[in-house]
Amino acid sequence: MCCRKIFVHHRCGHEITSLVEGCEKVECRSTRDKPTVSNKYPCVVPTCPYYGMFD
Q: Which residues contact 43 (CB under 8 A, 6 or more apart)?
């Protein structure tokens, strides 16, 4: 089963980006969502008070 990591800003909870990690099967048809709280990316929602902030 493939896994889609959804990176969420650690302060506001807005979705920042997602990354699909493939499994070893050639034709995998199922994808599992895995929310991941992170401070590695800034918030990308312009109306958020944490916009552009990493911390």
A: 9, 11, 12, 14, 16, 50, 51, 52, 53
